[in-house]
Amino acid sequence: MCSIIAQLGLDFQIDCVEFSTSVHERFRNFACALYELNDLGDKNGGVVIGKYDYEKNQLVEIDRCTGPGVYQLIWVGDDRILTANSDGSLRLAAQTRTDVWHWFSSVPISNCTILSVLSRNEMNFVASDATGYVHIVSLDEADLQLEKSWLAHKHSGYFKSACEVWSLAKDPNSYHILYTGGEDGLLKLWDCRIQLLEAELVSGFHQAGVVCIRPNQQRSHILVTSGYDDLLALWDIRNMQQCIDFIDLNSAAWTIRWDNENDQMRLLCACLSEGIAEIGVENESTLKLTRKDQRFGANLVYGCDWLCAKDNTIIFCTFKSKSIYLAKFKD
Known about the structure:
Distance between the termini: 9 Å
Shape: globular
Number of strands: 29
Order of helices and strands: EEEEEEEEEEEEEEEEEEEEEEEEEEEEE
Largest sheet: 5 strands, antiparallel
InterPro entries: Diphthine_MTase (IPR052415), WD40/YVTN_repeat-like_dom_sf (IPR015943), WD40_repeat_CS (IPR019775), WD40_repeat_dom_sf (IPR036322), WD40_rpt (IPR001680)
CATH superfamily of the largest domain: YVTN repeat-like/Quinoprotein amine dehydrogenase
Protein name: methylated diphthine methylhydrolase
EC number: 3.1.1.97
Organism: Trichinella pseudospiralis
CATH class of the largest domain: Mainly Beta
Keywords: Hydrolase, Repeat, WD repeat
């Protein structure tokens, strides 16, 4: 179970929340993605930038940009944000001074929804869309430019309908290696140095769409994936023929965050209808459910992040109840 420290209610449904890597003495910034489908079928939303005030124990909204729905966002360094938008665009925001943000114009990347975005470094990004394509994009000052695109996932069979690409990850050992996860249930590895016609590796372990791929930055041979089959799988990237271990979470882990502060290996998972879960990784070989709070599952928990893993404080967002929570796992 978690004890709630602070709560911030918003007027849009929330599908992603992430802390900035920069930690100030009195506060820490976060950003959350807003997405809502209205009665006319329009996808609306935007981004809220906020901060957690350590002294007041409050989550505070400091800026907002509304427009198309935002499926995912990432921090680029300490003071920029890149968003994946429902109108097929990417958008960059930059902090100009404390609590003041500048929003650059959206840049069209695809003719359909951008579902995921990944930073390879602060000048190069990867985005995926709802028709199976993956796009590599470069940043020149504030100008985003499309470098290349390829069809990464497609449904098999006679009717080859569009296949959404839900998840992206980069290999910690190689700038050129990317992982993609699709609605088709496939996990794929791509080498961007060669012609991108076929994946270098394809795994069909998951029996439903692959929703999250998360390498471990400290133990760079370790990778976890999650899918709509409710399974969380542990992999050694040196041998991807089969996973090392897997665990059934009873709901898809839409967001996974490694604990990068402690020696022990563990994961924080936003498990949609099952709420928040902590998963321990023993001896790089065994997944074990160590903590779980199901109270918020009815409102769908899509996003989560660590505030301070050393003292078990976390942030997570609920989709239906439109709220962000700062909480602490009870010992």
